[in-house]
Amino acid sequence: MSRPAAATRSVTIRDVAARARASAGTVSRVLNGAPSVKDAVRRRVEAAIHELQYVPNAQARALSSKAFHTIAAVIPTIRNLNFVIFVRALQEALARDGYTLLFSSHEFDMGLELDEVRAFLARGLDGVVLVGQEHLPQLYAALAQRHCPYVTTWTLPREQESDCVGVDNFDAAARLTRYLLDLGHREFSVVASLAPTNDRNALRLQGVKAELARAGIELADDRILEGAGSIEEGKSAIRQLAAWQRRPTAVICVNDFLAFGALLECEALGIEVPGELSIAGFGDIQFASDTRPPLTTVRMPAADIGRFAAESLLRAIARSTGAAHAPSVLKLEAPLIVRGSTGRARP
Question: What is the CATH number of the domain that holds 126?
């Protein structure tokens, strides 16, 4: 039986300094990108790092500098393609400034979101990206205790308490509803999650109700069908309303997956879209223009939210050691994209 190989000793900064014929302080300045090191010395240090395969101790460097160059994003779900696009854009923007992005999803569980943020903070963070404005008080307390800058995204704050990059979900839903009203629709149904943890969803439902009320139309509770965001829930909603004696002529789904399901079920049941039923969604995710018929929807600027959130958070980090500042709020546009799934109501 062979003996186990002896453990290889970790290469230290002093080993690199000895190989490069430089001081440990000089090696440290090279690692930190200091411009004061002569080119010839820098090349020797970089060659020694490569030859010895030296890996800097990022945690020790972070503790000494109080800069971890790490950002955490905690998102509701990865099942929504727009959140995936958002995270990718966020990651790319942060990487250009030398930051690493960590992320997790909590599936609309605020307790889990709090646990994830606490775990990230324990490992060391420079900042946090949150989705929405509804979070447990303990989460904000944890961020404040660590003096950790954060930015909220995807919706606008009721009160300007933090840096924010988002869209006006209430207004976007109201504009979509007004468009359908102008097409002559008066019988509406909405497919939406009633869970309090999704404030974007709730604001869209409120926007629909408010615009209908302005037109003298009340959206009864039984015309709001439960759907957290899956294709199957969209199908189920159509099966329910198909059995109603007084069917709606327009259905608004608070995300595109619900609308995809609604379109599929209409095709299965022989319900003509948009002749008998107009269907609209939210998100303008991939494939929204490829459905039969193509989906009318509100475009969510997912990539722009990610890019601008990175910029906002990096500014907040830069200011975090200085004087207090007023939070900045950036409102992005969420345009209505009209396609073939909506049309005029039949007389």
Answer: 3.40.50.2300
